[in-house]
Amino acid sequence: MVEVPLFVQNRLRSTPFSEKVAGYKPVYTIYNRMMLPSSYGSLEENAHHLKTAVQVWDVSAQRQVEIIGTDAHKLVTMLTPRDLTKAEAGRCYYAPITNREGGIINDPVAVCLDENRFWLSLADSDLLLWVNGLATGLNLNVQIFEPDVSPLAIQGPRAEDVVARLFGEEIRAVKPFRFMRCAFHDRPQVVARSGWSKQGGFEIYLDDFSLGNALWDAVMEAGKDFDIRPGCPNLIERIESGLLSFGNDMYPEDTPLECGLDKFCSISEDGHDFIGKPALLRQQSEGFTKALRGVHIAGKPLAPLAHPWHCWLDDKPIGEVRSAVWSPDLSSNIGNAMLNAPAFTLGTSLRVATPEGDRQAEVCTLPFV
Ligand code: THG
Questions:
Q1: Mean pLDDT across the stretch 192-217?
Q2: Domain 64-145, CATH class in plain words
């Protein structure tokens, strides 16, 4: 990982948990103009700990766009190829957001708080501007703003035990991508079974910045018998699990179809209308010329990728690896690559130009695990 010092100023936002997190001396990245802890020492040790115990992640940088009003549901359904026409209160939906070309401009979790009120829990781009622009242009009856809401994730196989200690046994019955409201300091908080790992876990959408220290301490106390530690989205675990990172693996130039997100989309003539539908209908019938795939890269462990690595097929440029890391559990360098036809055919052998020299790579399906 490339680490650089950061000069912290007002416009680089701290989180409700920053004071607590700072004591563990993480390395940060910037996400939605907010500090996102991204490394607490060894990636490999953290991946192992995440898979065997439980971690608390300051993912406040997953900012919320709140949409409230009689046109809120109408606006939300327009934003995404995911069919949210029957969205239910108490549920969360992974919802890629597309522009008119069908390109992905964010891939939030849409939280349905009630029929007239939604949160979009953002990946790293200014969706607040896009949504406000649409509501203004269409003269919709909605209010759109960024609320004081900061998610804290509890992830790992013991996450349920920790959250049950914090909020009571009822939380164990909450199904994936559903939430219940749990009281903290007499305030109801949205607690969802979700999070950016496949190790199981919850996200607490803390709705009061001033309660950050208290929540952090309560979580650490509830987790002390389970070897709880601070952590963060882990590059090894998330690539193994096939969780895609907007801005790393996919950009606005890529469509949900090219990125393999079709299982979250309903794109049909008779289906709901959304921005980008004509482009995606066309791509669905004509087929696509590039696609996101897994790659196994041969040879000894590579340092994690910082900038895309070019791929070659018979000495022709054919795409790029966009994320890559050594997986100790798979004993392989694994990565996500955007590849042009015909290189995205499974089993294709490519040459990848890594900073540590050219390597042979083989194209595979996602997820790795
Ligand atoms: N939680 C919350 N907000 C977020 C993320 C999160 N915002 C940024 C980023 N992560 C958004 N991207 C994703 C990508 C994948 C998933 C969640 C958010 C995810 N996907 C599962 C999968 O692909 O198998 C399940 C999706 C589903 O069943 O709907 O979990 O993590 N609050």
A1: 98
A2: alpha beta
